Amino acid sequence: MTPESFFHIALKVDDVDEGLAFYRQHFDAELIERGHADDGDGATAVNHVAVAVADKRVYLFDRAPYEAAGLVDERPTGFLHFGYVVDDVEAACADLAASGVEFIMEPSVFGDLKIAFVTDPAGVRIELLEHI
Q1: Is the model more confident about 109 or about 40?
Q2: Total domain count for the chain?
């Protein structure tokens, strides 16, 4: 199999609206869709938003109803982080720091890359990369 392209990443979060606000404020995300589905008995099974960041989609799923419906289980391993290429890591980090975003790693040089790591409100790790 050869996939045509990478389409999206889906993240479980504690608060969909808080996540949406974070990605809008810090990554200029555009809301693409807001979805809600019930399990047929009136209970919320899935509550999500999808945002466009750069040329990819990020889906944020409210973890509580998603897990209660048995659609996913807890997975302590697997996803590590995702990254965005930026023109200037130092400038991006200054903007994020001014807004109180938590850093895991301040800007550092690794070969021909300058990288930094931040977290979103759900604790998802986001890497910022600059080709130097």
Answers
A1: 109
A2: 2
